[in-house]
Write a structure and sequence with these properties.
The chain contains 1 helix and 9 strands, in the order βββββββββα. Helix content is about 5%, strand content about 40%. The strands form 2 sheets. Strands 3-2-5-6-9 form a 5-stranded antiparallel sheet, with no helix packed on it. It has a 4-stranded mixed sheet with strand order 4-1-7-8, with no helix packed on it. The chain starts with a strand and ends with a helix.
């Protein structure tokens, strides 16, 4: 799983891949997190994981960024049916300071693999559930933080 972010500058980047039991975002009994990484580079990879062939596989890739004024992120949930003896790359491209992101799944020959995606991502963000591929932003509530800092 590969993630690329075009947002320049120093910030904490987090990336994760999460599996779901089905297209309705049910939690998977096989484990929720496929992989995650904190303090990612602008281009980074998550470790490979085996998946079951010939069964629908639903997963989400998500990135988030810790900014001075708040937090932002973007995610895409997708479902496809992997084939036996095949390898796949899932690639999440984040654009415009997380205002949008795009997911591509390719096989070992770099051919596009068809997948479906619901209107909303299964990933819960600081702003709740968001549209697939549409970024979110949550400003820091300084009114709540400053009194804590002054104590």
């Amino acid at each position: 799983m590969y993630m690329e972010n075009d947002t320049p500058g120093t910030r904490m980047r987090n990336g994760s891949a999460i599996t779901y039991a089905g297209t309705e975002c049910e939690r998977s009994t096989a484990g929720v997190f496929i992989s995650s990484n904190t303090s990612m580079e602008e281009k980074d990879e998550l470790p490979s994981k085996p998946i079951v062939a010939d069964q629908e596989f639903t997963f989400a890739m998500s990135t988030s960024h810790v900014l001075w004024g708040g937090n932002s992120g973007c995610s895409v949930t997708a479902t496809f049916t992997p084939k036996a003896n095949e390898t796949y790359d899932a690639r999440l491209y984040t654009r415009g300071n997380s205002t949008s992101c795009e997911l591509f799944i390719v096989d070992k020959d770099n051919h596009a693999v068809p997948f479906t995606k619901p209107a909303y991502s299964c990933v819960h963000t600081l702003n709740g559930i968001t549209h697939n591929g549409i970024g979110w932003y949550k400003p820091i509530d300084w009114g709540a933080i400053i009194p804590l800092l002054l104590k």
